[in-house]
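Reminder to self: keep the SMILES exactly as supplied, no canonicalising. Ligand is magnesium ion.
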Amino acid sequence: MGLCVGKPANVAHVSSTQLTKDAINQRERKQEPRPAKTSADEGLNRPNNLKAFTLNDLKAATKNFRSENLIGEGGFGRVYKGWIDESTFAPAKPGTGLVVAVKVLKSESYQGHREWLTEVDYMGMLRHKNLVKLIGYCQEYESRLLVYEFMPKGSLENHLFRKGVEPVAWATRMHIAIDVAQGLCFLHSKEPSVIYRDLKASNILLCSEFTARLSDFGLARNGPVGDNTHVSTRVVGTSGYAAPEYVATGHLTTNNDVYSFGVVLLELLSGRRAIADERGVEETLVDWVKPFLNENRGVFRIMDTRLGGRYSKKGAQAVAALALRCLHKDPKYRPTMAEVVASLEEIMSSPKSLPEVSSLGVKPLIDLNNKF
Ligand SMILES: Nc1ncnc2c1ncn2[C@@H]1O[C@H](COP(=O)(O)OP(=O)(O)OP(=O)(O)O)[C@@H](O)[C@H]1O
Ligand SMILES: [Mg+2]
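Structure tokens returned for the bound complex:
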């Protein structure tokens, strides 16, 4: 789930995502305790296409949350691999039936509970090939869990940035971009629109064939209705991905997701993180990349060196130009996600988008690569 970055004025100075989230959890825990104890599913009016699991079901499915089944950890808590029967959803023997990812809310935070509720509400309602499928949930006493389809290739973050992982090919990167764009386009096309608010590489999960799906709807919100131009919200999201006008004002529109998508495009092109990691560099990827993209052929100097030059020059230039449009300072000049999907499909269908095997003859800025 996403990082809560507090009030607008605080956002630019967030240096540790985890600390900030914990701080907010602490504060909200004091002010607003989690709702009183309930037995499994009591008092919930959740979508009936979701399975209400008991805690015992999920203990059995994950072998009592055994550490060897741990597949990841985020701000919300730990994620475990588990197995359930395909038709009854009862716990199954490891290695049989349907593989699931079980997310366990880590503390008694009200914020976490609220994200859990939002996730159940949206994911119970929304079904699309580019959204991770929520199978069910568990609310039992203090425990809050979510059960998703298991995405065997894990997150895009792991594939782009983790050391020792095989580089993602150019064509695969472009397919991932289209999948993500289609997922967002679907959300924005709802009435009222659904604003995702937490697009980032760790929330883009991959199937065995590298089909990309969006996960984590804990921060999603309905967009404006009627004559309203925006929804006013507390600023949440992740530094480096959140649109500057949203960070400054808390005004939420679908354009904010378009900006975050532009950041993900830059990550796909450059293989560098949106925000500097623990080495503490202040500059964001957007700040670093923009001057290069404003110069002719500058894109070749920011391209991921792990591609070994095996990408299309024309394709990379077109994608970089699209990223710049998504990152426009003025949100009204950003394209809609429907326009983004159309542009990406056009770029991909052009024969000039096929990778070129030869070296591009432009020296990438290898020394600067270590910044992200
Ligand atoms: N459905 C899933 N299938 C496979 N792996 C998953 C699934 N859901 C999550 N994971 C793994 O668990 C990791 C943690 O996910 P989680 O959504 O809890 O945190 P995050 O996205 O890394 O951070 P944040 O809390 O800021 O959103 C992911 O990066 C991914 O590797
Ligand atoms: Mg996540």
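Points to follow up:
The longest helix spans residues 170-188.
The CA atoms of residues 44 and 139 lie 9 Å apart.
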